[in-house]
Amino acid sequence: MKPSSAAPGSNAGLSNSDYGKSRPTSVLRSPASIRFVRNRIFYARAALNAKGKVRFGLRHIHVLNRYPNSEDQCHTLQILMYIFPRQIGLHNVFTSPVDNSQTAQSLPDYTLRESEIAQRKTRAQCKTSGAGVHPPRRLRGNVFELVQKMQKLHSRCTYYELLKHYCPLRAKMPRNRDSKTDSKTPGLVQQPPPSSRVPETQLIPRSTATQISSDRSRSFVKTTPIEKIKGIADHLHTDLTIVDHATPYSSVSALCRAVLTNLIPSEFWGQGVDGAHNKKIVMCNVDRFIRLRRFESLTLHAVAQDLKVL
């Protein structure tokens, strides 16, 4: 949940190997000064597959998709470098300076950092006579196994099914009295083609059309049955706006929390009551992040403030 592993954005093709040149080698940022870059997540372009359709789930360039084999220790080590860059000695949001000529954001994009990792491996091989990069002791053992478990959970996670469950298509199409609801997609109504539509004047009798003109009168509401009013309203509501296709933020929040629950092993949050408490805090902040307005931001300090660390 670090900002260093934020979602892909517009600077995915930039290299992180040049960060730090001709500038101070290190800075120390407080958690209150580290803000999650929202526009990279909310305003990023949708990833497309080979057929030009939207690809659901993580992007194909995401580190979990590029290194999916949990049995290969090299793949797991590569993911460890993305999750814990400061422990490996890579560019990170805590101690590394940001080159404003490389990015216009407050923090660089860490989606692709293979060139930086390759340089780090080269330096490590020179120092250790070809041994390569070894994770610190605190990242071995249980942490290494948890990352392998996360790789397995990612391969089993059905992102598209979660999307259909938590964010179903709920657009209400125009319909007439004879239309029937599609059995495959609940909430959707089949709409006849424009050429087969009957003019509204032929569907509604003249006496009824007179009542429609006096829609706001109390006598019409009192004397007309509720079923007839609904039938008339079905003929009148024929235009859809972009708001009709919007998904409520509560559904988006539920989808994000469901993905994190299926992707992150429970041991990552901690043990026992403390682990359940930490997971609840993070999930509440995910919901808070989704509900933020356009110019509001969320800092690392706000997320980690109530976490319990052993």
Topology:
Blueprint: H1 38-42, H2 63-66, H3 73-83, H4 85-88, H5 114-127, H6 142-156, H7 159-166, H8 200-203, H9 206-213, H10 218-223, H11 226-236, H12 249-263, H13 272-291, H14 300-304
Helix pairs in contact: 3-6, 7-12, 12-13
Question: How would you characterize the overall build of this protein?
Answer:
- There is one protein chain.
- This protein is mainly alpha-helical and 310 residues long.
- Helix content is 42%, strand content 0%.
- It contains 14 helices and no strands.
- It has helices at residues 38-42, 63-66, 73-83, 85-88, 114-127, 142-156, 159-166, 200-203, 206-213, 218-223, 226-236, 249-263, 272-291, 300-304.
- α7 (159-166) runs antiparallel to α12 and α12 (249-263) runs antiparallel to α13 (272-291).
Entry summary:
About 40% of the residues lie in helices and about 0% in strands.
Mean of all residue-level pLDDT scores:
76
Shape: globular
Structural class: mainly alpha
Distance between the termini: 18 Å
Query: Counting H and I runs of at least 4 residues, what is the number of helices?
Result: 14
- The low-confidence parts are 1-15, 17-22, 174-192, 200-204, 209-214, 216-222
**Could you estimate the helical fraction of the residues in percent?**
40-55%
Radius of gyration over C-alpha positions, nearest whole angstrom: 27 Å
Key terms:
mainly alpha, single chain, globular, 310 residues
